[in-house]
Design brief:
Blueprint (H helix, E strand, L loop, with lengths): L2 H119 L10
Organism: Rhodococcus artemisiae
Protein name: ATPase
């Protein structure tokens, strides 16, 4: 082989060696990236676990809130019943007051008449509370 024939082979070997070095550097870079990605995924797993715990806690809180709303609804229903009963009692009391006012009117008239008679008989100084 002559010197001229060896030149393309050397060029080819150099290119192959350079390609091997480039591939080796690429593999190192990929290993670094994969290592970083592994740490990132580990941190992400911890974050997701924390999020799962928070969601579980939120589920418990929402269940408690739902029970509280049910109790509020039941209380409002009971209060509505109590208000209805109170309205019926108030209506009855108003009727009794009306009856008592009607029943005491004759007593007021009788008292007024009694005062008038007492004044005419001279048993009082002032007739009908007039001054």
């Amino acid at each position: 082989m002559q010197q001229g024939d060896r030149q393309p082979e050397r060029q080819r070997l150099r290119k192959l060696a350079q390609a091997a070095l480039n591939a080796d550097m690429t593999v190192d870079q990929l290993q670094t990236i994969i290592g970083d990605l592994d740490r990132t995924l580990g941190n992400m797993d911890n974050t997701i676990s924390g999020l799962d715990g928070a969601i579980a806690g939120l589920g418990v809180t929402l269940a408690r809130f739902d029970r509280t709303l049910d109790q509020v609804d039941a209380t409002v229903t009971k209060m509505g019943d109590v208000v209805g009963r109170l309205e019926r009692v108030t209506g009855r009391l108003e009727s009794l007051v009306d009856i008592a006012e009607i029943a005491t009117r004759p007593l007021g008239a009788l008292e007024s008449a009694g005062r008038g008679i007492a004044a005419r008989l001279g048993w009082t100084d002032r007739p009908d509370n007039s001054e």
